[in-house]
Amino acid sequence: MAKNKSVIAFLVILILILIVIIGIQSISRVTRPTKIILPSDTIKVSECVPNMGEHWTNPANLPTGPIYLVDNGKVVGVEYGIDEEGLEKNIVVIAGERVGKPFIIPTQSLKFDHIELNYMPEGHEGEEEPHYDIHMYIISQEEQQKLCK
User: Fold this and answer.
1) Cα 132 from chain centroid?
2) Alpha helical stretches, state H, the chain
3) Residue 35 — φ and ψ, nearest 5°?
4) What domains, with CATH codes, occur in the chain?
5) pLDDT, tens digit (0-9, with 9 covering 90-100), for 49-97
6) Is 68 helix (H, G, I), strand (E, B) or coil?
7) What CA–CA distance (Å, rounded) separates 20 from 146?
8) CA dihedral of residues 73, 115, 8, 82 (deg, nearest 10)
9) What integer pLDDT is reported at residue 120 of this predicted model?
10) pLDDT, position 27
11) Pairwise CA distance, residues 75 & 84, whole Å
């Protein structure tokens, strides 16, 4: 039960952090770039996945990322993975309560359209352990739904 509370607490903190990031980006007077450049050390690690695109990364960054989501040669988003074991080890005690320390996710000063958090209880090809995937898209949800169709 305590494990579930810790995971829920971590997810709530993560969502609040992401809301703050999105809010800061939306009120910022500084124009933020909306284009992600695919680093030269990345390779394609998957063909096109519906609603995500191809996956490109430096193999040394697997399984956590960054993994670049690419459609027709254009980066449309970035993915990061956080495994359950990593969450469990990432606990601190504050005022007698166990809480998850924040995971810092670089946004490359980009303006994201939307962010998805997906729990993968059975894992997936390339990362078979249970984990959470965070997908940050610079394209709209409507455009995302057309990927690999």
Assistant:
1) 8
2) 2-27, 84-89, 141-145
3) -125, 130
4) 2-145 (3.30.200.270)
5) 999 999 999 999 988 889 999 999 999 999 988 877 777 777 777 778 7
6) strand
7) 28
8) 20
9) 86
10) 45
11) 28
Q: What would the pLDDT profile of 94-127 be if each residue is shown by its tens digit?
A: 778 777 777 777 777 778 899 998 888 888 887 8
State the DSSP code for 21: H
Q: Tell me, what amino acid is at 143?
A: E
- What SS3 class is residue 69? strand
Tell me how long the chain is. 149
Give the pair of three-digit tokens for residue 17.
């952090």
Three-state secondary-structure class, residue 47: strand
The answer to whether residues 149 and 96 touch, using CB atoms and an 8 Å cutoff, is: no
Q: Is the pTM of this model over 0.90?
A: no
